[in-house]
């Protein structure tokens, strides 16, 4: 009878074992090999969400936060690395769906005095909207409503949170009607939302 451990770890793998699917539920998957000796690539699709949740829990508890954003008397302890990773200038991607916070990122990566400060003051943006955008940075989720869409678009436009800005534009586009088309046109034009500007103008002129 073979003893436990006999033959080493490699000897324990049968040539016909392969990688099986369907055993990992919705949390991950393994690539199906084309040959018995091919390596398997395991992907845990729940991992990114779990990491974000962990970072958000750290933020809420104040652990490892190394910079504080100050907006209209409110303070937001955050992690520089998260805001930097959240910036469209990090990495090489220029995709229009990339998120933002480029204003803060520019402070971190430049020679500005703010790059070394533990407290950074943001002006020209509502504290409530910064709170929503920070939640988005740490969770990838944000709720757009009729009550907040204009202020949220303004804030995401200023901070260049492109994905949220475009989501706000789509929200406004879906709500264009005869009572607000002129106002939406003017608002969109003021914020350089070209596609929304054209659609609001077209609705006004029809």
From TrEMBL:
This is Kelch-like protein 20. The lineage of its organism: Eukaryota, Metazoa, Ecdysozoa, Arthropoda, Crustacea. It holds the Pfam family BTB. Keywords: Actin-binding, Kelch repeat, Repeat. It comes from the Eukaryota. Gene3D superfamilies: Potassium Channel Kv1.1, Chain A. InterPro entries: BTB/POZ_dom, SKP1/BTB/POZ_sf. Residues 65-146 form the BTB domain.
């Amino acid at each position: 009878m073979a003893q436990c451990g006999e033959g080493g770890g490699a000897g324990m793998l049968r040539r016909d074992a392969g990688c099986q699917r369907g055993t990992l539920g919705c949390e991950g998957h393994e690539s199906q090999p084309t040959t018995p000796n091919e390596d398997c690539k395991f992907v845990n699709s729940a991992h990114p969400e779990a990491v974000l949740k962990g970072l958000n829990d750290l933020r809420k508890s104040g652990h490892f936060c190394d910079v504080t954003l100050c907006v209209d008397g409110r303070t937001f302890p955050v992690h520089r690395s998260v805001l930097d990773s959240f910036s469209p200038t990090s990495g090489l991607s220029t995709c229009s769906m990339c998120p933002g916070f480029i204003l803060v990122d520019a402070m971190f990566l430049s020679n500005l005095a703010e790059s070394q400060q533990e407290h950074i003051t943001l002006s020209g943006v509502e504290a409530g909207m910064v709170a929503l955008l920070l939640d988005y940075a740490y969770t990838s989720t944000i709720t757009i409503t009729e009550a907040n869409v204009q202020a949220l678009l303004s804030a995401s436009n200023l901070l260049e949170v492109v994905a949220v800005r475009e989501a706000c534009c789509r929200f406004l586009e879906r709500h264009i009607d005869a009572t607000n088309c002129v106002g939406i046109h003017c608002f969109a034009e003021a914020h350089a939302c070209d596609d929304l500007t054209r659609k609001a103008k077209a609705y006004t002129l029809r």
